[in-house]
TrEMBL record:
It comes from the Eukaryota. Pathway: Protein modification; protein ubiquitination. Keywords: Repeat, Ubl conjugation pathway, WD repeat. Residues 373-412 form the SOCS box domain. Gene3D superfamilies: SOCS box (1.10.750.20), YVTN repeat-like/Quinoprotein amine dehydrogenase (2.130.10.10). This is SOCS box domain-containing protein.
Amino acid sequence: MDSHNICSSNRPTDIQGAEETAPLIGELKPIHPPSVDGRAGCETWSVEFSPDGSYFAWSKGYGIVQLLRWPLQGIGWHGTAQLPDRGKEKTLDCGQTVWGLAFGPRTSKFARRTNDFKLRELNEIAQPLLLATGLSNGAIKVWEVETGHLCFNLSGHQSVVRDLVFAPNGSLTLVSGSRDTTLRIWDLNKSDKTAQVLSGHTNWVYSVSVSPDCSMIASVCRGNPKVFLWSLRSYTFIRNLKSSDTFQVSCDFSPDGALLVTAAYFDNWETSLWDPYTGEHLFKLQECVQCNCTIMDNPIKAVRFSSEGLHLAFITEDRELRVWELGEDEPLIESKLRHFSCGLCCTFHPQGGVIATGTRDGHVKFWSVPQVVPSLLHFCRMALRFSISTHQVMALPIPTKIKDILTYRNYQDSYDLLCSHHRWRQ
């Protein structure tokens, strides 16, 4: 048995159809259609589920954010989207184009089980659910979800706030990345709303992610092949990660913090997985070789880990959605070939089963994803890796093969994801 199969889940074996394996179970359509002259404004730049999965936030273009109760009325495994309950939804008028969304406070599921008394104390304090919105003028507006009231209006960035994330330790620490090339770290518990500034990027910061133990921040910027790692504890630069000359566009930590995934493209797309503790490039996924011969420019837009750490969702110019299971040789699911409405963002529901994607023409689509029970080995690995670093694992007096599994070094170096169209033609 190959070592990577030890940790795989029971994935479906009856993939049906050569064109689509991702059931579309619902769709939200914008009120305003795309501009006929191609001007920006209607794009869904960001979609997010709240940490407990009870709310869905939709950046629906023209400065409007829609807050909807989840599940939406009529969305099920075999249903379609109907109008949600109007009594439960809220509309936030941000006044500027909304590029980034983030719910907070949020807590890693492993942090909830930790013996860290500070984290336990934070989690016991009743804090209202907030939604941070990053705007095109550089402002960040933070709203109380239940009431829809504006709590904070943060200023400091000089241009578009492209991405936002709350630290996953139950605190109100907010990290933002902007077109002004900086990252800013805000503590919303303090009366003084000035931010710690991290400088070093040379262009528009596209994506930021905070490790589950809140020790590191990862960020990528436009037109740069380097991934930046920062210390959230000392607000200092740690190192760059670089494996090729492709341009990085998105990044996300695994739920245990032992992996960092980055999405990049030049003429074709690829996603790389790294060990953030050592900076080592572990393995990568590459675009279908046969597609690469015909599509010369196929950028990837976003990549996200699932909450159980087994799956990656990513969207590219040629398809709205692909989902890959760690260690497999083909996509778990993928959407049809659609050029008229490329995806811009994606996110998993925290309890699994659904992925939401936002598109350039302002739509939101919900896709059914197989719910799996990870192996006991995978659960144990994630619980252990949340608590200890790669260096600590390597110092343990255990067999090398077990160390390889615990540090995700039991996978092959590269995976070429043959698309369903070419896979079925073989």
